Amino acid sequence: MKRINNSVIALSLFLGIANANAQEKKTLSLDEAVQLGIQNSKNLKIDAAKIEEATADLLEAKNRQLPELKVSGSYMYLPIKPNVDIKLAGLSGGAGGPDVHQVLYGSANLSVPIYSGGRIKYGIQSAKYLVEASKLSTENDKIAIAYNVAQAYNNLFKANQSIKVFEENLAASQKRDETFLKMENNGLIARNDRLKANLQTSNIELQLLEAKNNYNIANINMDLLLGLPETTELEVDPNYIEEGSDVKPVDFYVSEARENRKDLQALAQQRKAAELGSKAAKAENLPSVAFTGGYIAADIPKFLTVYNAVNVGVGISYNLSNIWKENSSLKQSQAREKQLAATDELLNDNIKLDVNREYQNTDYSKKRIVVFEKSAEQANENYRITKNKYDNGLATMTELLDADAAQISANVGVINAKADAALAYRKLLQTTGTLTIK
């Protein structure tokens, strides 16, 4: 029996050590969490690919202003003797012509664009604007990710603080149960009153279990959001809830949004690109002029040899069908301009609404803190008075337990109100485009 007990103890110690090693603990400030969230964001990886795509489009547009040099060559074998009939005076032709069985031919052609109606210039400028728009969209996504991380961090903080409050109250309630059990045994209180106290303790245990469950879910969500192993237990910095103490007038935040919103700036770049797209579409009706040059060499054994056949000149290209065909590219580009103009107006309206809404939410959340703190003071004082009355036989057990439950609820409410106020302030900063990413 002793050996079995020793084995059980050893196994328990081993499992305890294994669990301790498996559950890695990590303390994170909110700024550190935001950095991890940005580094491991799948959305930002997609944005990076979009920037690469836009940069490649810019490179393609720039390549159109560079010279085009094409080289070609051919070798042909003629298994059947061709019938060569030369019509030049003094040269015989027909079946008695030269015996030709192979032909070598090579050429090089150079084209340097001189004038294209502005299509190349507008294309390059438009591509630059689209690259900048992609970068600004990425910055806007970073700000959104920073807020999402803050939201997850806030949930983790609230769950963690709730656990602490419930644990403290559970310990006090269990100690009270022990006291009431002794009083029941000594005939000082009724069994029914002691059972009411036990029920209160059970309710606190249930609240603690719910808080721990919320914490575990919030912790896993945070791990996945930050790219950490799911077994990492995160510890948050409670000082972050002090943010947002100095809130300026709403007009200040509306002005900040107009100057700093990256999505608004990205849309402005897209509108510039669309405007240039319309100019490039108009240029389709103009001719193109290019400097041309070429070199030809040919070798037909026993018949003809050509080399140093160099040519230079100027080529003009114009699509005459543009005279009777409507410019669909221009109409499409102009429609795109109208869409973006309407989108800009809508976005400006939404920004005003977002900023005003989040400003009101921030103001509301700060006022909630004052109310909850006042409620907590009242609940704590009420419990103290009720406990004193109960000890002197002037209050019932039900009144005491109700006062205790109200005290717990009020204290948890203060923590949650402060956390929600900090998050509301960060949401306000997100809507203005000024949420700091350190």
The H-and-E topology, N to C, reads as HEHHEEHHEHHEEHH
Radius of gyration over C-alpha positions, nearest whole angstrom? 40 Å
What percentage of residues falls in helices of 4 or more residues?
55-70%
For the terminal residues, how far apart are their CA atoms?
61 Å
Please work out how many helical segments DSSP would assign: 9
Low-confidence stretches: 1-21
Task: List the defining traits of the structure above.
438 residues; two-stranded parallel sheet; alpha+beta; 4-stranded antiparallel beta sheet; single chain
Describe this structure in words.
The protein is elongated and about 145 Å long. The strands form two sheets. A four-stranded antiparallel β-sheet has the order 2-3-5-6, with no helix packed on it. A two-stranded parallel ribbon has the order 1-4. The protein is an alpha+beta fold and 438 residues long. A hairpin with a 3-residue loop joins strand 5 and strand 6. Helix content is 66%, strand content 13%. Helix 4 packs antiparallel against helix 5. The longest helix is centred in the middle third of the chain and has 67 residues. The N terminus is likely disordered. It contains nine helices and six strands; from the N terminus they run αβααββααβααββαα.
Brief description of this entry?
The protein has helices spanning 2-22, 30-39, 42-63, 119-185, 191-226, 250-260, 262-282, 328-391, 397-432; strands at residues 25-28, 68-77, 102-115, 233-236, 288-300, 304-317. The chain is α+β, with helices and mostly antiparallel strands and 438 residues long.
